[in-house]
Amino acid sequence: MKSFYASIDHDKLPTQVARHVTSRPMMNLLVQYMRRTVEYGGTFREVSCGITAGCCLSPLMGAFHLHDLDVAMTTRHSGCFYIRYMDDILIMAPSRWKLRRAIAAMNRELAALGLRQHPDKITIGPIARGFDFLGYHHAPTGLRLSAVTVKRHQEKLTRLYEPYHRQLRAYRNGWGGQSTIPGRHDAAWAYLNKRPVVTSHEDITQLLKVYQRRFYRWASGGLETCGKNYLPV
């Protein structure tokens, strides 16, 4: 979906949550959570539509908002396979006619919620051709990382190179041997579990290789039966 969190209606969401939550203080907190005031560049404005994407409560509120869609798709289109993870939806049907009917019904439900599909993230075609879902490419030949996932990983590796290169320059300028990468919140700490000391370009290459190996091990979790099909080709 396009801008899912930013498109959630502030009038519809409380009505949907009220079906399951009867506590008035809790509903009052929910309204305050949605209708908030934000500051940017010294300017304050009230948010009239959408919820915060980075809030831990937002996934639950998003599930409440799409509950009607889930019910409609699973009860009225029993001949199709429907699954949703957050705002990513997968529909499989035995025929093209049933698929078109299910997509039309889904679009009606999304329109009723004030949502719409993302024009650049829609794939329609035979299952035998394979498809991407949740970062993986699903095909009859096996399961592997999608091309988009690999591309994003390569971009992250490129961004990781910059702090290492700054550390190398500091070392060559007489730096005393302590890591210049700050704190435990650094991406290198999360993946390498240590403060690496970079003294040459070879050190940077080795660190990025370790990062890449750990990424592929993480991405292959639970896919032992697929052998090496999870690796990019």
TrEMBL record:
It holds the Pfam family RVT_1. Residues 1-138 form the Reverse transcriptase domain. It comes from the Bacteria. InterPro entries: DNA/RNA_pol_sf (IPR043502), GrpII_Intron_Splice-Mob/Def (IPR051083), Rev_trsase/Diguanyl_cyclase (IPR043128), RT_dom (IPR000477). Belongs to the bacterial reverse transcriptase family. This is Reverse transcriptase domain-containing protein. It comes from Sulfitobacter undariae. The lineage of its organism: Bacteria, Pseudomonadati, Pseudomonadota, Alphaproteobacteria, Rhodobacterales.
